[in-house]
Design a protein that fits this description.
Helix Hairpins, two-stranded antiparallel ribbon, calcium transport, two-stranded antiparallel sheet, mainly alpha, about 1250 residues, voltage-gated channel, 44 helices, 7 domains, Voltage-dependent L-type calcium channel subunit alpha, Four Helix Bundle (Hemerythrin (Met), subunit A), metal-binding, about 60% helix
């Protein structure tokens, strides 16, 4: 393992240079590499001898590759760092995380097949629709040069027209010849590039650019449907299935690990009981021997005493039986307990004869005063007044820290320095007071006390270092911001927030294990990236090298981390492909590195964060429900689960001081849902008179209690009383109060209004009106407010507003307004309805003179679609889930505020720069300078120097929080990172790579906020949504699985199988339903899919003709299949299966396409739309057929996943002909 670690260090120290250049360090590392190769080769041969050749194949291949020197095999050396993963077997929490990932590989493989299926379908569609469209751009008609920033264009009027660029003496025309956007990497010219483009779009990076490129090339009519459907189906649905798999596997593995731990504890408990039983037998045997010698040793038996630690013989207690001795066994295991001594009364006279000395009397008096003072101090620090005093001081300290900003006045800086010293003194006094009252050992029991001690010591260190000018104040002053975490002490009296913090603390162990895996993952891919791409990102000598590169280990780790976050990962991939020659060379293979890195890092490892969050929040929610149930049972007088034993105090003949008692406080027994757990909680009073358990609870740490609760969490649904199942559509009763003090409970008009409001037809009509009115709001013309369309829509708006007003009137009459329980405005959703209707009515009452007020009020009409929430159960559950994220929002804002304060300390006033990089000061950034466009000295341009500040900065806390919020969204954070790395000191321009260590600030922030806390948001909404769905069955005696089983049984229908009676028809039926026929069709579908994917831009005419012939053959074969199935099943039973309908539509479209392909001269554009309608209809058919997917046989499932490619045959022939004609016409034009 040491050799592996040393090899990793050697790989990290290696510095790659362009063109295979090297230096002395690299040459020495090459020599050291020989030593590593010899060691690993010996290890490989020994493993082959010990375990056989098959087991040592990987090591053998790696050592063989290590003996070479080029990139192709040298890069594989980095895989040696995978060996430290063997350490996970010794870390249980790390093993849980890794096992959950490994166990998820099988279901993830199925999801991967589904993802590949979706990518193939969209790649083929893009290949048919957009092939060659992205190579047209605007050229200067005279000089032949391209436009300054090339993008696709259209010769027609649908897309971008080059005439918009025409100016005096410059005329632009749209023609072919451009490599395409993104160096020709993202296009649909062939199947491989189309798949890469679709995958990039599914990752939601650069998909909008591709959509706008297509719109520029072809117009913005229907093309957006392709990209929007791809994002919804691929990014929103298919990719999120990975989260579901990982969440389920992580939960299972944690349950298994918990079960293993419980079993281990049970075995240990049984072993202890066996040992205790042996001791009990020994003690019983000893008593029997004593009884036999009773007459001879009567005085000795009467004098036997049990002497407790800290007591004299006079305070001894006799032990008469082994049972009484067992009561004290827990006491002997205490940390400061002394052995039990059995003594006689012989020394009593000597003790009474001894007289205490003067020094002993003074010491005894001082100890008594000291105990009283400590007792008083302990009472003070345990009081709520002292606790809230510290909380107020923490908030005041926070406010002072938050007041720091750029260009603050001198008096504020002096005030901050004095208050900082003042708070340091106060918190130091608090720490010393607690240490004195609780004792050192008692003080450090609580984790919060340890944290306070660390903060105080760091604050004192900061004051000393800055006052003595040993260290500049910037670096150490950041430590004072850590005090802000003390605000979490307020959770002591905030139960829901305390439960949330407890669940976050329970996640720390799993999160730490995941971070270790993530760190190893980043190291592996950083070293591999250095070997593959190191020194290769130097493309243009006149331009700066991209900041994302692999030229050293630190920069490689930053680049890998950037790819993990998903921000601009595609841009890094473009540069990686360019480094090896671009798409026209085998360098396109470089994309494999980035795809594997993105999938394994972003989709697997980072989704484990969310899986951990969902799992822990679900446990915390279950724990909170269990506590509420226990509280209700206690209020009803039921017997609780916790059994408290009384304190078994031990006293002698004379009183013993309270601080010197040692007692077994209580034995807590709890029975969980999945098993019985016994928890023995021991509390021992020290000299300071404080219990271990009290430190935990009062100091807000509560680690033992939280851990104990974590062991006793309910693992499944608690058995509930059988009661009536509540229904979702239960009618809301009429409140037994008067409405508006006019309509009584039995008033006929009120009863009639209540009947109308609860009628299903009334609700459906209102819902339809809401949807139509919302659609009309979207149809308004925002540019011409007085247009005829807006006039008509405004009349419809008046009608719908009248309908909604009548609805509100009926509901207010039926339920009352607000005063009584169950009234209309007692529901927040009804309040939203009233607000929307009131805004609409007020906007109609204003005249045109108050146009600004009308606009403001009419803008509020956009809330109208929200009214549908109250009428849809699923939407209401989502809203309720969103309402419960207040605690998480508070914790996240507090953490973000802390990072913002630290950011102000680090970066205030440092994000200024001059556009002329040669000037570093604002005083120098004056006048004008010459800039050469693209480094071309023949194109000088005169620019004015401007001293500018970055759009996002840390000059004050508010702006810092906004900046950090943008970082948490991952949008543009690498640019801000490198601005921070280049930042110098206040009011001085940037220096390249001046402070690379500040990257740690951003990485920690992203891990805590973006990776964890943002996922806590998502996880909490998921858990709450699930719980809201379970509220319907709250008192049901069946659990979720049992309900699903019953629901499946109720909805199951028998499958009807048609078997013809006609002999000839039966033979055909037997043939089309046989396995050989299914396999033959499956093979034909695969071949058809391959033929569709074989198309590429610029293909030869003979190749195109061959594809046409294949298209005719496949169409004929599938038409024959259709005829055979019609003969076997007849029309009635054939069209009962949705799959057969889909097959028929595909075959019919293919035949029509072939029949009319010769007419494309006249109807080319129209048939474009026709083909797209076929594609869209096929997708609708696929969605419809998904209902029956789970009930299919394995062969039919495979056909379901592949046969979709069949409908694309309708496009093949026509598009080949169209492209051929376009090529011929364009050549004739030239």
């Amino acid at each position: 393992m040491l050799t592996i670690f040393a090899n990793c260090v050697a790989l990290a120290v290696y510095t790659p240079y362009p063109n295979s250049d090297s230096n002395d360090t690299n040459a020495q590392l090459e020599q050291i590499e020989i030593i590593f190769m010899v060691i690993f080769t010996l290890e490989c041969f020994m493993k082959i001898i010990a375990y056989g050749l098959v087991s040592g194949v990987l090591d053998f291949v790696m050592q063989g590759n290590g003996a070479e020197s080029g990139f192709d095999v040298k890069a594989l050396r980095a895989f040696r760092v995978l060996r430290p993963l063997r350490l996970v077997s010794g870390v249980p929490s790390l093993q849980v995380v890794l096992n959950s990932i490994v166990k998820a590989m099988v279901p993830l493989l199925n999801i991967a097949l589904l993802v590949v299926f979706v990518i193939i379908i969209y790649a083929i569609i893009g290949l048919e629709l957009f092939s060659g469209e992205l190579h047209f751009t605007c050229y200067n008609n005279e000089t032949g040069s391209r436009m300054e920033r090339p993008h696709p264009c259209d010769n027609g009027t649908a897309g971008f027209n080059c005439s918009q660029l025409n100016s005096e003496g410059k005329f632009f025309v749209c023609r072919d010849g451009w490599e395409g956007p993104n160096y020709g990497i993202t296009n649909f010219d062939n199947f491989g590039l189309a798949m890469l483009t679709v995958f990039q779009c599914i990752t939601m990076e650069g998909w909008t650019d591709m959509m706008y490129y297509i719109a520029d090339a072809m117009g913005n009519s229907w093309q957006w449907i392709f990209f929007v459907s791809m994002i919804i189906l691929g990014a929103f649905f298919v990719m999120n299935l990975i989260l579901g798999v990982l969440s389920g596997e992580f939960s299972k593995e944690r349950e298994k690990a918990k079960a293993r731990g419980d079993f281990r504890k049970l075995r240990e408990k049984q072993q202890i009981e066996e040992d205790l039983r042996g001791y009990l037998e020994w003690i019983t045997h000893a008593e029997d021997l004593d009884l036999e010698e009773k007459d001879d040793k009567k005085e000795s038996e009467d004098g036997r005493r049990l002497v407790l630690p800290g007591t004299s013989n006079r305070g001894a207690m006799s032990v008469a039986s082994p049972t009484s001795l067992l009561l004290f066994l827990p006491l002997f295991s205490m940390r400061n307990s002394k052995p039990v001594e059995v003594d006689n009364d012989k020394g009593d006279d000597n003790d009474e004869a001894q007289q205490p000395s003067w020094w002993q009397k003074k010491k005894k008096g001082f100890d008594r005063i000291n105990r009283r003072a400590r007792r008083a101090c302990r009472k003070a620090v345990k009081s709520q007044a002292f606790y809230w005093l510290i909380i107020v001081l923490v908030f005041l300290n926070t406010a002072v820290l938050a007041s720091e900003h750029y260009h603050q006045p001198d008096w504020l800086s002096q005030f901050q320095d004095y208050t900082n010293l003042f708070f340091v003194v106060l918190f130091t006094c608090e720490m010393l007071l607690k240490m004195y009252s609780l004792g050192f050992q008692g003080y450090f029991v609580s984790l919060f006390n340890r944290f306070d001690c660390f903060v105080v010591i760091s604050s004192i260190t900061e004051v000393v270092l800055t006052s003595t000018e040993i260290m500049p104040p910037l670096g150490v002053s950041v430590l004072r911001c850590v005090r802000l975490l003390r605000v979490f002490k307020v959770t002591k009296y905030w139960r829901s927030l305390s439960n949330l913090v407890a669940s976050l603390l329970n996640s720390i162990q799993s999160i730490a294990s995941l971070l270790l895996l993530l760190f190893l993952f980043i190291i592996i891919f950083a070293l591999l990236g250095m070997q593959v791409f190191g020194g290769r990102f130097n493309f243009n000598p006149t331009e700066d090298k991209p900041r994302h590169n692999f030229d050293n280990f630190v920069q490689a780790m930053l680049t890998v981390f950037q790819i993990l976050t998903g921000e601009d990962w595609n841009v890094v991939m473009y540069d990686g492909i360019r480094a090896y020659g671009g798409v026209a060379t085998p360098g396109i293979i470089a994309c494999v590195y980035f795809i594997i890195l993105f999938i394994c890092g972003n989709y697997i490892l980072l989704n484990v964060f969310l899986a951990i969050a969902v799992d822990n929040l679900a446990d915390a929610d279950a724990l909170g429900d269990a506590e509420e149930e226990e509280g209700k049972e206690g209020e009803e007088g039921g017997e609780g689960e916790r059994i408290e034993d009384g304190k078994m105090g031990v006293e002698g003949e004379e009183g013993i001081e309270e601080e010197e008692k040692t007692a077994l406080n209580h034995i807590a027994l709890r029975d969980g849902d999945t098993g019985s757990h016994t928890k023995v909680h021991l509390e021992e009073e020290r000299e300071d008179g404080e219990k271990y358990g009290d430190y935990e609870g009062d100091e807000m740490g509560e680690e033992e209690e939280e851990d104990g609760d974590g062991e006793d969490r309910p693992q499944g649904m608690r058995p509930r009383r059988t009661s009536q199942l509540s229904t979702a559509n239960k009618t809301k009763p009429l409140p037994p109060y008067s409405s508006f003090f006019i309509f009584s409970h039995t008033n006929r008009f009120r009863v009639f209004c209540h009947w109308i409001c609860n009628h299903s037809l009334f609700s459906n009509v209102i819902l339809v009106c809401i949807l139509i009115s919302s659609g009309m709001l979207a149809a308004e013309d925002p540019l011409r407010s007085d247009s005829q369309r807006n006039f008509i829509l405004n009349n419809f708006d008046i009608f719908f507003t009248s309908v909604f007003t009548v609805e509100i009137f009926l509901k207010v009459v039926a339920y009352g307004f607000i005063l009584h329980k169950g009234a209309f405005l007692r529901s927040a959703f009804n309040g939203l309805d009233l607000l929307v209707v009131a805004v609409s009515l007020i906007s109609f009452s204003f005249k045109d003179g108050a146009i600004s007020v009308v606009k403001i009020l009419r803008v509020l009409r956009v809330l109208r679609p929200l009214r549908a929430i109250n009428r849809a159960k699923g939407l209401k559950c989502v809203i309720v889930a969103i309402k419960t994220i207040g605690n998480i929002m508070l914790v996240t804002c507090l953490l973000e505020f802390m990072f913002a304060v630290i950011g102000v300390q680090l970066f205030k006033g440092k994000f200024f720069r001059c556009n002329d990089r040669s000037k570093a000061l604002e005083s120098e950034c004056r006048g004008q300078y010459i800039m050469y466009h693209d480094g071309d000295i023949t194109k000088p341009m005169v620019e004015k120097r401007v001293w500018e500040k970055n759009a996002f900065h840390f000059d004050n806390v508010a702006k810092a929080m906004l900046t950090l919020f943008t970082v948490s969204t991952f949008e543009g954070w690498p640019g801000l990172l490198y601005v921070s790395i280049d930042s110098n000191t206040e009011d001085i321009g940037p220096v390249h790579n001046y402070r690379p260590m500040v990257a740690v600030y951003y990485i920690i922030y992203i891990i805590i906020i973006a990776f964890f806390m943002v996922n806590i948001f998502v996880g909490f909404v998921i858990v709450t949504f699930q719980n809201e769905g379970e509220q319907e069955y709250k008192n049901c005696c069946l659990d979720k699985n049992q309900r699903n089983c019953i629901e499946f049984a109720l909805k199951a229908k028998p499958v009807r199988r048609y078997i013809p009676k006609n002999r000839f028809q039966y033979k055909i039926w037997w043939f089309v339903t046989s396995q050989p026929f299914e396999y033959a069709i499956f093979v034909l579908i695969m071949l058809n899919t391959v033929s569709l994917a074989m198309k590429f831009r610029g293909e030869p005419e003979a190749y195109t003709h061959a594809l046409d012939i294949l298209n005719l053959i496949f169409t004929a074969v599938f038409a024959l299949e259709f005829v055979l199935k019609i003969m076997a099943f007849r029309f009635k039973f054939y069209f009962l299966d949705p799959w057969n309908i889909f097959d028929f539509s595909v075959v019919l479209g293919s035949i029509l396409d072939i029949a009319y392909s010769r007419l494309e001269y006249y109807f080319g554009d129209a048939w474009n739309v026709f083909d797209f309608i076929i594609v869209l209809g096929s997708f609708i058919d696929i969605v419809y057929s998904e209902v029956n997917y789970q009930g299919m046989s394995p062969m039919n499932k495979i056909l379901h996943e592949v046969e979709v490619g069949t409908y694309l045959t309708t496009q093949n022939n026509r598009n080949l002909e169209v492209k051929r004609e376009k090529t011929n016409s364009s050549s004739m034009t030239k």
